[in-house]
Write a structure and sequence with these properties.
The chain is α/β, with parallel strands linked by helices. It folds into 4 domains: 202 residues, Rossmann fold, CATH 3.40.50; 207 residues, Rossmann fold (3-Layer(aba) Sandwich); 174 residues, HAD superfamily/HAD-like (Rossmann fold), CATH 3.40.50.1000; 72 residues, Alpha-Beta Plaits (2-Layer Sandwich). 44% of the residues lie in helices and 19% in strands. It contains 25 helices and 28 strands. The strands form 5 sheets. The chain has an 8-stranded mixed β-sheet with strand order 5-4-1-6-7-8-10-9. It has an 8-stranded mixed β-sheet with strand order 21-20-19-18-17-26-27-28, sandwiched between helices. Strands 13-12-11-14-15-16 form a 6-stranded parallel β-sheet, sandwiched between helices. The longest helix is centred in the middle third of the chain and has 22 residues. It is elongated and about 105 Å long. It starts with 8 loop residues before the first strand and ends in a 6-residue tail after the last helix. The structure holds magnesium ion (MG). Magnesium ion binds next to loops.
Length: 747
């Protein structure tokens, strides 16, 4: 990286919601700060930006300001948003809100990603609107993004955006963070084929992709392998032309804010009031947004079981159940609210009396100080979601206990459980387990409470929300730097000019070209990779030039290559060098080879083809191949390892080699490779320009056989002996096109 690396850069945050909400009252605009976890967390991070150590110098926030805004007022909103909130609003229409936000976001992705497949709606209108809104965000960013900016896209509303941006801004570093769980493959694949592919491809438009936990990250990587066929190495996904890094970053809270608020006079006042009304009863706190993923009913039932089984606790414990209004007007949510209120009524009727109400139920939003006061008076926080991406309530409770007492009961289905192992972890589906955890918490000695909270507080203080965001942004910068080193051998315009110059200057030129993965992209079935007209045209025009010797050097069978390329003015190498054909001559063998071993090997490969659907055996004259591109990707990879092992054992005493190709395993005679084939031509004559292009392991033999001043070019990225690289077959064709076009001066 150049000297700009140390420069601090502008950050563009993109999330569905802006950190404020606009409402229109009698034509007047009102801006209210949003209280969601993301808005609050990032606000804390952004407030830290004056710190010269931060990689970010300034920011802009792009998102929806909530509700709809009359056209006439939009420019006023834009102006105020930019000047007072450094924000750039993306306005949504009624239809967007219905089909994108209420629809695809909240009725498709939300339930599916939280593993509630029964609640998922599959609606084409929702999907179309989701695509449209993602495109609208992309359009909004079009004029905003400048060279040097970092872009950070948030959450499940905008999964298609990274790829849309990537298409328009190939070099801009883009991060993506998912704040909800990523589901397992079995759940994710319930989405229709095009949706699931577009969502994965969309997210993979980012350079850096973050999840709250290692599990979500693994589930995402498994889906990209099984659905798109992209392998990863320790979370790094290499695409032809890009490097993507996937990692887990558990989102933190503003620890200090909660910690010091808990000792503030305002909180103390509210706390006193609460204590007065609750008396000596031990307090259990439950706070959630109204949502089926939060497991509120299960929790109430768990408390009911506690009261049923432990008579002595009746009158001695009180559950404060705060439900924060959410998605008002959505049917499922209205129904759930009714069920919660009925259950609370039942429990209170059954166990309560004049002097004691078992559950104090509140359906309302809590202002910050009231929330902290609740945390401060509660002996136990009961946080038992059925599924939750992270859950910040659990962290906030621990932070709001300055004397370090208090017990956190936490669902193991919440992302936060991965960090807060000192909590009492429970399975939220089983009411007896909730009741048992409550008993354990009520009996826990104070020293033990302090011991546990102390460990958790240290962790939460260190990995706070500012650290979380800074880590992710540093990682984003690192990934783009690493990508630059990985692609350092790429043929840049000056290198290309030099290559063209050398080509034109040479009176004799030798060019080796691999076929699959070099001149054409891979297809699911190797037999389908018929050469396109464009490739044939370029090969002919290069081969026709008197100064050129062009050799197509492939692992394929003679018959296939002869069929496709036999009439072209070029040389051909088949089966990685077993058979060669000079321009205008007949096929011949480079050295005498035996094929009597084939009947022994073929049955082994056929056994694998039978066991692993989608794989096949190909018999060539002097080699046999097991192709597994069509198999289940995870199974195919393991099977390939197993087969390689089998073959190594079997061929130990025979003059054979076992080679791993791109999704195939080949057995052939030793001493034959593309390098020995290339040597045949290299030893014939002196050439002023030598070039070899290939994409896989078998081409490495070619690269090493070429003279030191030759142009060896690897297609795609990975470890290679080649001096240069190109991203894709498309770029190879472009380069060859440049060579073919240039008229031979003094030809
Ligand atoms: Mg190849």
């Amino acid at each position: 990286m150049n000297a700009h690396a140390a420069e601090r850069r502008r950050l563009i945050i993109v999330s569905n919601r802006l950190p404020f909400t606009i409402t229109q009252e009698q034509g007047e605009l009102k801006f209210t700060e949003s209280v969601g976890g993301l808005a609050t967390g990032l606000r804390t991070f952004l407030a830290s930006l004056p710190d010269p150590q931060s990689p970010v110098s300034e920011h802009v926030w792009v998102g929806w300001p909530g509700g709809t805004v009359d056209d006439a007022l939009k420019s006023a909103v834009r102006k105020k948003a930019l000047s007072e909130y450094r924000s750039f609003p993306v306005f949504l229409s009624e239809q967007d809100i219905d089909n994108f936000y209420q629809g695809f976001c909240n009725k498709t992705i939300w339930p599916l990603f939280h593993s509630f497949p029964g609640n998922v709606q599959y609606d084409r209108e929702y999907w179309n609107q989701y695509k449209k809104v993602n495109e609208a965000f992309c359009d909004a960013l079009q004029d905003l993004i400048q060279v040097g900016d970092l872009v950070w896209v948030h959450d499940y509303h905008l999964t298609l955006l990274p790829a849309l941006l990537r298409a328009r801004f190939p070099l801009t570093p883009i991060g993506f963070f998912l704040h909800i769980p990523f589901p397992t493959f079995e759940i994710f694949r319930l989405l229709p084929g095009t949706w699931r592919r577009e969502i994965l491809e969309g997210i993979l438009g980012a350079n850096q992709i973050g999840f709250h936990t290692y599990d979500y990250m693994q589930d995402f990587l498994r889906c990209t392998l099984r659905i798109l066929g992209y392998e990863n190495n320790m979370g790094e996904v290499f695409l032809n032309d890009r490097l993507i890094r996937v990692g887990s970053f558990p989102m933190g809270i503003d620890f200090q804010k909660f910690h010091s608020a808990a000792s503030s006079p305002e909180v103390a006042r509210e706390q006193d009031e609460l204590i007065r009304s609750l008396g000596t009863s031990k307090v259990i706190l439950s706070v959630d947004r109204l949502d089926y993923s939060k497991g509120i009913l299960n929790r109430l039932k768990g408390f009911e079981t506690l009261l049923e089984e432990s008579e002595h606790l009746r009158g001695a414990v009180t559950l404060i159940a705060v439900v924060v209004p959410s998605r008002i007007g959505v049917e499922d949510y209205e129904l759930m609210k009714k069920q919660i209120e009925e259950l609370v009524g039942n429990i209170n009727g059954r166990f309560g009396g004049v002097s004691w109400t078992p559950i104090i139920y509140q359906f309302r939003s809590l202002p910050f100080h009231s929330l902290v006061a609740m945390y401060a008076v509660s002996n136990i926080a009961l946080v038992t979601p059925l599924r939750d991406g992270m859950n910040l309530i659990a962290k906030e409770y621990v932070a709001s206990r300055p004397d370090k007492t208090g017990v956190l009961i936490l669902s193991e289905m919440a992302g936060a459980a991965k960090e807060l192992g000192e909590a009492i972890l429970i399975n939220p589906n089983y009411r007896e387990e909730i009741a048992q955890a409550l008993r354990e918490a009520l009996e826990m000695p104070e020293e033990e409470q302090i011991r546990r909270n102390q460990i958790m507080q240290i962790r939460l203080r260190r990995y706070n929300v500012t650290r979380w965001a800074t880590d992710i942004i540093n990682e984003l910068i690192n990934v783009t730097r690493r990508e630059e080193t990985v692609f350092a051998n790429l043929i840049t315009p000056p290198k290309r000019a030099e290559l063209l110059h050398r080509y034109h200057d040479a009176s004799r030129r030798l060019i080796f070209l691999d076929y699959d993965g070099t001149l054409v992209s891979y297809t699911r079935r190797p037999s389908l990779a018929t050469p396109p007209e464009e490739v044939l045209k370029i090969l002919r025009s290069l081969g026709e030039k008197g100064k050129n010797t062009v050799i197509l050097i492939s692992g394929r069978r003679k018959s296939e290559l002869e069929n496709w390329f036999g009439t072209l003015p070029i040389g051909i190498v088949a089966e990685h060098g077993a058979l060669i054909k000079e321009k205008g001559s007949e096929w011949k063998m480079l050295k005498p080879l035996m094929a009597d071993w084939k009947p022994k090997i073929i049955p082994i490969l056929e056994g694998y083809a039978d066991r692993f659907p989608g794989s096949s055996v190909e018999e060539k004259e002097y080699s046999v191949v097991w192709h597994y591109r069509g198999t289940d990707p995870e199974q195919g990879k393991l099977a390939a390892m197993e087969l390689t092992d089998d073959l190594h054992r079997f061929t130990a005493n025979i003059d054979l080699q076992v080679l791993q190709g791109q999704k195939n395993i080949e057995v052939r005679n030793t001493g034959i490779n593309k390098g020995t084939a290339a040597a045949y031509w290299l030893s014939n004559e002196r050439y002023g320009f030598v070039m070899g292009i290939g994409d896989d392991l078998t081409d490495e033999d070619l690269f090493t056989a070429l003279p030191a001043d030759a142009y060896s070019i690897r297609v795609g990225i990975g470890r290679t002996q080649a001096r240069l690289s190109l991203r894709s077959p498309k770029e190879v064709i472009q380069l060859l096109g440049n060579l073919a076009q240039g008229d031979d001066r003094s030809a």
